[in-house]
């Protein structure tokens, strides 16, 4: 089931949907979301990240509660191997793509000057490509994809009245960071038990921890006045500046500096947390199977990616200013 041979008859569709599938994977979100924060608008990145975390958590939990299998193979050919162990309903790729595209559209339509129809078309095309890629790669049925899109649409409608509250989280009380740590960690540690091991719990912990870290980072920035206050929330109309060579080089430089620091922090905290947990539970070092144990997997993932989130929103902007990168 894990090794399938197939013949590519149409390379245009093959590469189009492989690329589209990547738009709904971790590699896109760990590049697009930080880039948005460092180079475009921290206000937008905060909304995108919090909605993304909410949608992904509900989608991941729904998978392990419903336990609907992925499409049978054969007849389909599954082009992605890592996610085979996960259940299928709903498609979290479809959920994440829809959430990111339409949260970005809704949050910018009254903030920047651009044709609404153009933004709507781009949001529909982006989410549609990701959804179709899940069918092409054999990872989901049409029902899985439609379920993911409809759940996300419902969540956006239900949470939209609270979006302005999200914008004020960084001015919450000093007890706020405690809640941001305790609640997500509790949700991760009490994640629905699966019949067999799958990466769903680990991925969910990574997502919730990153969201917690980002939220705490914004709170730290506000509480200690480390950075200037982001532009006020809606309604503020701004012109989208033209893309110049200088802006492109500056944006890529800030992105490269930020990613390097994040990777260093991630590796350092991950190694340190694993060493502490291995010692505490008396586990042989470098035992890969031990990483899957609940009492090790959840704490080390949570500590690692909470640190990454704090680093991305607090220490990376400070490093940018230190290096003279506006």
TrEMBL record:
<dbReference type="InterPro" id="IPR000326">
    <property type="entry name" value="PAP2/HPO"/>
</dbReference>
<keyword id="KW-0443">Lipid metabolism</keyword>
<feature type="transmembrane region" description="Helical">
    <location>
        <begin position="112"/>
        <end position="133"/>
    </location>
</feature>
<keyword id="KW-1133">Transmembrane helix</keyword>
<keyword id="KW-0472">Membrane</keyword>
<dbReference type="GO" id="GO:0042392">
    <property type="term" value="F:sphingosine-1-phosphate phosphatase activity"/>
</dbReference>
<feature type="transmembrane region" description="Helical">
    <location>
        <begin position="145"/>
        <end position="163"/>
    </location>
</feature>
<dbReference type="GO" id="GO:0030149">
    <property type="term" value="P:sphingolipid catabolic process"/>
</dbReference>
<feature type="transmembrane region" description="Helical">
    <location>
        <begin position="12"/>
        <end position="32"/>
    </location>
</feature>
<keyword id="KW-0256">Endoplasmic reticulum</keyword>
<feature type="transmembrane region" description="Helical">
    <location>
        <begin position="175"/>
        <end position="193"/>
    </location>
</feature>
<dbReference type="GO" id="GO:0061469">
    <property type="term" value="P:regulation of type B pancreatic cell proliferation"/>
</dbReference>
<feature type="transmembrane region" description="Helical">
    <location>
        <begin position="44"/>
        <end position="62"/>
    </location>
</feature>
<feature type="transmembrane region" description="Helical">
    <location>
        <begin position="83"/>
        <end position="106"/>
    </location>
</feature>
<feature type="transmembrane region" description="Helical">
    <location>
        <begin position="302"/>
        <end position="323"/>
    </location>
</feature>
<feature type="transmembrane region" description="Helical">
    <location>
        <begin position="244"/>
        <end position="265"/>
    </location>
</feature>
<comment type="similarity">
    <text>Belongs to the type 2 lipid phosphate phosphatase family.</text>
</comment>
<dbReference type="InterPro" id="IPR036938">
    <property type="entry name" value="PAP2/HPO_sf"/>
</dbReference>
<dbReference type="GO" id="GO:0005789">
    <property type="term" value="C:endoplasmic reticulum membrane"/>
</dbReference>
<protein>
    <submittedName>
        <fullName>Sphingosine-1-phosphate phosphatase 2</fullName>
    </submittedName>
</protein>
<dbReference type="Pfam" id="PF01569">
    <property type="entry name" value="PAP2"/>
</dbReference>
<dbReference type="GO" id="GO:0006670">
    <property type="term" value="P:sphingosine metabolic process"/>
</dbReference>
<feature type="transmembrane region" description="Helical">
    <location>
        <begin position="205"/>
        <end position="224"/>
    </location>
</feature>
<keyword id="KW-0378">Hydrolase</keyword>
<feature type="domain" description="Phosphatidic acid phosphatase type 2/haloperoxidase">
    <location>
        <begin position="46"/>
        <end position="160"/>
    </location>
</feature>
<keyword id="KW-0812">Transmembrane</keyword>
